[in-house]
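Deviation from plan, reported transparently: 2-phosphoglycolic acid complex.
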Amino acid sequence: MAPVVLEYWSMNTLHATPAKKPLMVGNWKMKPATLKDAKAIYQKIAKVAGTFRNVDIVVAPPAVFLSELKRTSASKKIKWSAQDSFIKREASATGELSPSQLKSVGVSYVILGHSERRALGDTNEQVRAKMDAALAEGLAVILCIGEHERDRSGEYLGFLEAQLTSAFKGRARTELDRIIVAYEPLWAIGKSAKDAHVQARDVHEMIIFVRKYFADRYGKAVADERVVLYGGSAEPVNAAMLLRDGHADGLLIGHASIVPHEFVEMLSIANTL
Ligand code: PGA
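Because the crystal trials were delayed, the predicted structure below was used instead.
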């Protein structure tokens, strides 16, 4: 563990962070294959979502299903997220979706900088531009950061810091409240919990690292208020560990979020922690 992280850890344990409601985000990616299946999945989640009073729930289906899913079930509990949005608020841009279009169909969050988007070409600069456009439209941003692999000398921390700096440099304090950071190590994404072997320590260390980033720039009180999620191979079997021992403020859930009973089980775990 890098010394800088440890230093904040000791500072943080002296002043325990106030408890936040866990934020559970389901990222459906490019699944399921049909609207019919999407409705079936969503209905099962929406039916019980209202019972989880101690959890905030966000679902990010493929944008093409959004309007229809919203009509399917009037769950007030579930908020909607897009999985990406365009770098500009207005443009001649075939195939893209603007933040205002997403907002107009009831979206309140957008996931930006997901590693799967970055792998398709999104640079830190483009992620920043997308954040600016989405924030200007009034959306909240779930900003994903994550390293490809870890090295013993801790160079991956510099990589993560560059992702954060590109996203936050010069940002007004007031904008921070609409930005959630999701730490998603690429080495854990898309794997089963069993294969990924994510340890609570890996997560806790990075939650502290992100808070420390904000503490250095905005002060400790602002850092403590930030919502920092963990994502990558989150499943019912490791959800409690990631949230409680990893100290994540919530989870960004991929494959388990389209298996209704698994997603619901994770909501239930988060609800009772
Ligand atoms: P996973 O995906 O839960 O399937 O690992 C998480 C993500 O990519 O957001």
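The chain has 13 helices and eight strands. We consider this an acceptable substitute for the interim report.
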